[in-house]
Design brief:
With about 150 residues, the chain is an alpha/beta fold. It has helices spanning about 20-25, 35-50, 65-75, 115-120, 120-130, 145-149; strands spanning about 10-15, 55-60, 80-85, 90-100, 100-105. The strands form 2 sheets. Strands 1-5-4 form a 3-stranded mixed sheet. It has a two-stranded parallel ribbon with strand order 2-3. Strand 2, helix 3 (about 65-75) and strand 3 (about 80-85) form a beta-alpha-beta unit.
Length: about 150
């Protein structure tokens, strides 16, 4: 925590790459498809127990992190419909565990660049029309408000 001037049990937005680069060298590094909304969708998927009973929309980069995220969500049975952004990398959240404390360090990157055009694609819109429940994080109102309406 000291190396990055972080506090225990904190959750912050972070713009630097250093912590993510350093973490890649950790032998006990674990990747989990996350973000508050995607976590909720994965739990709903687990409760429903039927493969692809849930769908998730979001924006990721055309990079290794985006591939890992899609793989992990797919393994959980979620029908992921990511928009792939060429300019921005996939957002990440480093979770640092120190004793009983958990610190979250989030770099949103591509997650901040979802566009309505992706939602309006015919295959994606059919999923929206067929849905019985909709769920979104509040931060998405600052990203693509038209998609929320």
């Amino acid at each position: 925590l000291d190396k990055y001037s972080l506090k225990a049990n904190d959750a912050i937005l972070y713009e630097k790459e250093d912590i993510f680069v350093d973490m890649k060298g950790q032998s006990d590094l674990e990747y989990i498809a996350g973000g508050a909304t995607q976590n909720s969708v994965r739990v709903a998927q687990w409760i429903l127990g039927q493969d692809k009973a849930t769908s998730y929309f979001g924006c990721v980069g055309k990079d290794e992190s985006g591939k890992i995220l899609a793989q992990k969500s797919g393994e959980a049975g979620v029908n992921v419909q990511y928009q792939f952004h060429a300019q921005f990398p996939t957002g990440r959240c480093a979770v640092l565990i120190t004793g009983q404390d958990r610190s979250l360090v989030t770099k949103l990157d591509a997650a901040n660049h979802y566009s309505m055009a992706h939602l309006e694609e015919e295959a994606n819109w059919k999923l929206v029309e067929a849905a019985k429940v909709y769920y979104s994080a509040g931060f998405f109102l600052t990203v693509c408000p038209d998609a929320m309406i």
